[in-house]
Design brief:
The protein has two helices and twelve strands. The protein is mostly beta strands. The radius of gyration is 22 Å and the shape is globular. The relative contact order is 0.15.
């Protein structure tokens, strides 16, 4: 049990808990916090959440040794890669290509993506191809090897005079190009 006699930020409490209990679910941690006198202060227009924490007690629901190891999904020669494929391994052969389409909903169309390929000798974006607004290009396997395709989104409101503070999403797939 932790006892705090002064005001602490909720972020500091959650960070401490995440470090101490790696296998606990953060939602379960939040539900177990005994927080009193929660209030929001907005000095200079910046939101700072503070709370007086009277105590924190946790009973981990599992230990690190009990965690199930999840195997990454494997896509074999996909013609299209979407946000649903985040974290997957993509298997291809030289000459095969796929469409990267990360904007799936009409509300996503204003979101832009910065795509980076760790080794462009293995896979690269095809040029002079007409693509739709929901996609980020067509990519072709060039050589045998393994590389990572990473894409980070940005919102139009992040580029304004008073930028919004929406979190950016990081999309990543591992691409393995082999003979078969």
């Amino acid at each position: 049990m932790f006892r705090f006699g002064k005001k602490v930020s909720i972020g500091a409490v959650l960070m401490t808990l995440a470090i101490l209990v790696l296998s606990a679910n953060l939602i379960q941690i939040w539900q177990k916090l005994n927080i009193s006198n929660f209030k929001t202060i907005r000095p200079n227009g910046i939101g700072v959440a503070t709370a007086t924490v009277s105590s924190i007690s946790l009973t981990p629901t599992s230990s690190i040794s009990n965690l199930k190891q999840s195997q990454p999904k494997i896509l074999i020669s996909p013609s299209k890669i979407t946000l649903d494929n985040d974290g997957t391994i993509v298997e291809m052969t030289p000459g095969q290509s796929f469409l990267l389409a990360l904007n799936q909903k009409p509300t996503d169309m204003s979101v832009s993506w910065n795509v980076d390929i760790a080794n462009s000798d293995i896979i690269s974006q095809k040029t002079n191809i007409l693509i739709t607004k929901d996609s980020q290009g067509v990519y072709e396997a060039k050589a045998i090897g393994t590389t990572t395709l990473t894409a980070v989104n940005s919102y139009p409101c992040q580029k304004t005079k008073s930028p919004c503070f929406l979190p950016n999403r990081i999309f990543r797939v591992i691409i393995v190009v082999s003979k078969n």
